[in-house]
Write a structure and sequence with these properties.
Chain A is of the alpha+beta class and about 160 residues long. Chain A has six helices and five strands; from the N terminus they run H-H-H-H-E-E-E-E-H-E-H. Chain A is globular, with a radius of gyration of 19 Å. The interface between A and B is large, with 40 and 39 residues. Bound molecules: manganese (II) ion (2 copies) and zinc ion (2 copies). The first copy, chain A, binds a DNA duplex (30 and 30 nucleotides) through helix 2 and helix 4.
DNA sequence: CCTCCTGATAAGAATAAATCTTATCTAAGA
DNA sequence: TCTTAGATAAGATTTATTCTTATCAGGAGG
């Protein structure tokens, strides 16, 4: 899930624009952290971004990653993914989109759907409040995990 | 979001049946914990269930609530709700269903949708793996929170 | 190019949800 | 009633996240 260079550059520019507009400082750390997230379409977690950026900025503290995360979230430059709640994950795709999630390995992939974009909020829900986002999660098993599982089965049968 | 007595009883029976079938012990604690969850359609968190059941069983430990939770989850008697990841929440409604979620107060309400039940997995997603569940989250502001917000506005205007 | 000041960072302490450990207890089958 | 595998209580432990505080640096203004 490596993103195209042009998409990465677009996200980087939108980050810099948002930072300027919000009057927040464009520090070396923030730029490197965002660069790392913007180039990764796999919805990485805080820990992995921390490790990767620390290679380039050794004194980096994990707190800075968390802080940058919440600043970027507030400025609507990236979003928190609410899948597998054990740890927070970044999503640098701010286009409204949905997710395919593998129950086994936790892989998260983006998809778009015209069918879902046309979805009408059911009548029973309307009196409960105003809906601003329709988010869909397709849950199942990814091809890779399915492959591993069947490989293990044949392994077992051989015993 | 108080559930009807008959729905509560139905869930309680299905819990007892599942426990018998799985060969797990029907302890006083488990019964009381489940009774509390089964009667609450608001997707309560571990802490609140702990507090409520502790009134009836004072020596109850919160670990027992967590353990009961994971046993019941394994036995498919209830599910974990992955909304607002700060703390785990129970869902004793095991019918496939969707949620309306209020961003402000975290209220979660169940809904069903024939339109969504007919949803076809997009072609682009199919090669990624097998989808077993289509889960939809309608995010927005509940009527109660919207009411509070507009009340505060008029308050501000008076100054 | 310097200076200053405010907001940002690093390090490590603190917090809080969730899990683990161990001694004790109990549901339920014989 | 007796037995025992599995369950509980209490408190320690783990782990993700946030907080504290001394130091640092981006960037506005000179
Ligand atoms: Mn995404
Ligand atoms: Mn529900
Ligand atoms: Zn997978
Ligand atoms: Zn609300």
């Amino acid at each position: 899930m490596k993103l195209s260079e042009e998409e990465k550059q677009r996200r980087l520019r939108s980050f810099i624009r948002a930072a300027r507009q919000a009057g927040i400082k464009l520090t070396h750390q923030r730029l490197e952290i965002f660069r790392e997230i913007a180039g990764d379409g796999r919805h990485p977690d805080v820990e992995s971004i921390y490790k990767r950026v620390k290679k380039r900025i050794p004194p980096l503290s994990i707190d800075t990653v968390y802080r940058t995360f919440s600043v970027l979230e507030r400025e609507k430059v990236l979003a928190k993914v609410s899948v597998f709640c054990n740890r927070a994950r970044f999503d640098s795709n701010m286009e409204p989109h949905h997710h395919f999630v593998c129950r086994r390995c936790g892989a998260v992939r983006d998809f778009f759907s015209h069918e879902l974009d046309r979805f009408h909020v059911p009548e029973e829900v309307k009196p409960w409040g105003d809906v601003d986002t329709v988010y869909v999660e397709l849950r199942g098993t990814c091809a890779e995990c399915a492959g591993k599982a069947s490989a293990e089965k044949t392994e077992d049968r051989r015993k």
